[in-house]
């Protein structure tokens, strides 16, 4: 059976010529570099450039003899060799790092801990489904019942219980999203299901964003669930027309950026490549580009790196697609990109992200909404909320494992003396700054029997959602957990479905107990009122009694 190999130890390198035997030639090139280092007496160069990767270009056997020697004498990078461009395959000449030891800083610097975490696995499907990891990733369809390709191998190996688990997932898994189920008969404790995008040249940016979100959502679930090892196949497919090179770069770039933030939370991230030589070549080149292992690969990376390498999470954002609101609003006879569309003739629909953005931003109503919210915020700043603080209805309850602030709403503490308007002002007072947090924010709502009598009605919620609450709340809300929901509250949310965006419901979770909540937010991360603990215990006792 094939075994996963850490990218750090992979023999292939873009700064070496393509040999008949890649492994032998790579070792010979590294040994030659060592001999040249001894002859020239060059010391400490790569240690100065990147201490974490000192000696990374030494031969595999010498590199394992201990770090002491490597720290005393750094190994110089491989000298100039022709390299193939990622984009067009053109041959390029590299300048040696030794010629500029203090040269420009690499956009993607070599990081030993990341290169040791990422692993490559080639082989048949059995070698993937039998991996001993915390989670396997399944590229599937929206209903999680794809019996083709690798997905069928996972479903067959996991047994009928996994099918049963998937059938009870409350909502579809849309493109770019991820859902988690138990691993059942797999060695992996969990299976994370995701749906890759279809590729269209017309909507290329949307496809790239969707693929980026596939990888990012998978890793986010691992981070939130404390799953330290995950194995994933390529989440883009030929069946959906996704270009292999572009897919590889999006995948590796997203993984690298995520590990830049959270590498300490992972032991293994295994990329399964099957037996496809083309995919293996593209992934290796992308890894050398975004996860260089030496100063030589850093220099090579800088010479062929695309101009746009995305934001801090690796997502490509095109500047010319960013729409700015100006004093003159676009008319209904123009498209999002500003192209003229004759009246009476239906023009091409804008790409999905642009259409969603248009629905939220364009129009005078948006300015009116912003003005209404600004006035509301000014009023909230002038209020004295000592009574609301004492009631402990809405407060910041800590940060989740992703560093996102948690807003706790305890419905049990709401009384009939609290007027709807004052409740809204206090909500804005607490949440305004949190909603602007760069990582977004999380809301945990604890329901309680009888609380619905004090909650505002559906029409009030509809008005605040549509006309007052700003776009930043809707956009920056990352999760909403509703714990101990009563049927009255569920009916209220059900009535809100027609006027609330489907994107909101994708972030929405019903949880029956604190035990379920702690799977998403550890107990030590959130501060809860005593009334919540008492109610949870009461429900636990009732459930036990009903069982008997």
UniProtKB/TrEMBL annotation:
Region described as Disordered: spans on this chain: 1-105
Source organism superkingdom: Eukaryota
Domain Macro: 105-291
Start-end of Basic and acidic residues biased regions: 1-11, 24-41
Domain CRAL-TRIO: 381-540
PANTHER family in the record: GANGLIOSIDE INDUCED DIFFERENTIATION ASSOCIATED PROTEIN 2-RELATED (PTHR11106), GANGLIOSIDE-INDUCED DIFFERENTIATION-ASSOCIATED PROTEIN 2 (PTHR11106:SF72)
Protein name: Ganglioside-induced differentiation-associated protein 2
Lineage: Eukaryota, Sar, Stramenopiles, Bigyra, Labyrinthulomycetes
């Amino acid at each position: 059976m094939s075994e996963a190999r850490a990218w750090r130890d992979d023999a292939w390198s873009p700064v070496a010529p393509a040999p008949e035997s890649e492994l032998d030639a790579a070792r010979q090139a590294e040994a030659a570099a060592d001999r040249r280092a001894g002859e020239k007496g060059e010391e400490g160069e790569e240690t100065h450039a990147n201490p974490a990767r000192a000696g990374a270009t030494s031969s595999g056997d010498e590199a394992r003899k201990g770090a002491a020697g490597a720290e005393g004498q750094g190994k110089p990078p491989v000298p100039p060799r022709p390299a193939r461009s990622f984009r067009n395959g053109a041959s390029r000449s590299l300048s040696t790092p030794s010629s500029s030891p203090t040269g420009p800083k690499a956009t993607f610097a070599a990081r030993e801990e990341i290169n040791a975490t990422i692993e490559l696995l080639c082989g048949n499907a059995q070698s993937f489904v039998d991996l001993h990891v915390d989670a396997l990733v399944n590229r599937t369809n929206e209903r999680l019942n794809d019996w083709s390709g690798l997905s069928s191998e996972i479903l067959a190996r996991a047994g009928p219980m996994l099918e049963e688990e998937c059938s009870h997932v409350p909502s579809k898994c849309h493109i770019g999203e991820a859902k988690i189920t138990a691993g059942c008969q797999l060695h992996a404790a969990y299976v994370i299901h995701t749906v890759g995008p279809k590729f269209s040249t017309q909507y290329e940016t949307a496809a790239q964003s969707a693929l980026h979100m596939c990888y990012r959502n998978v890793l986010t679930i691992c981070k939130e669930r404390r799953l330290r090892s995950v194995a994933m196949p390529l989440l883009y497919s030929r069946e959906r027309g996704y270009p292999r090179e572009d897919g590889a770069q999006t995948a590796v770039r997203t993984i690298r950026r995520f590990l830049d933030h959270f590498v300490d939370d992972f032991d293994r991230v295994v990329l399964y490549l099957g037996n496809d030589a083309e995919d293996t070549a593209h992934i290796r080149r992308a890894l050398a580009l975004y996860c260089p292992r030496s100063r030589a690969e850093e220099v090579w990376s800088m010479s062929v790196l695309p101009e746009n390498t995305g934001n801090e999470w690796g997502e490509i954002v095109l500047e010319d697609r960013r729409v700015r609101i100006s004093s003159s609003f676009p008319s209904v006879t123009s498209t999002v990109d500003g192209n003229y569309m004759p009246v009476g003739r239906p023009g091409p629909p804008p790409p999905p992200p642009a259409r969603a953005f248009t629905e939220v931003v364009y129009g005078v109503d948006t300015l009116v909404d912003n003005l209404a919210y600004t006035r509301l915020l000014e009023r909230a700043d002038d209020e004295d909320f000592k009574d609301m603080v004492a009631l402990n209805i809405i407060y910041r309850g800590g940060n989740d494992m992703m560093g996102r602030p948690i807003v706790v709403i305890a419905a049990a503490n709401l009384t009939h003396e609290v007027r709807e308007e004052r409740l809204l002002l206090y909500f804005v007072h607490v949440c305004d700054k949190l909603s602007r947090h760069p990582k977004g924010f999380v809301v945990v709502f604890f329901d309680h029997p009888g609380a619905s009598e004090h909650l505002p009605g559906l029409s009030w919620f509809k008005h605040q959602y549509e006309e007052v609450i700003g776009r930043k709340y809707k956009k920056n809300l990352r999760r909403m957990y509703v714990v101990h929901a009563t049927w009255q509250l569920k009916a209220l949310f059900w009535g809100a479905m027609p006027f609330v965006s489907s994107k909101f419901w994708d972030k929405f979770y019903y949880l029956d107990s604190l035990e379920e909540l702690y799977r998403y937010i550890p107990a030590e991360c959130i501060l809860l009122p005593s009334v919540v603990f008492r109610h949870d215990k009461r429900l636990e006792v009732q459930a036990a009694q009903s069982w008997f």
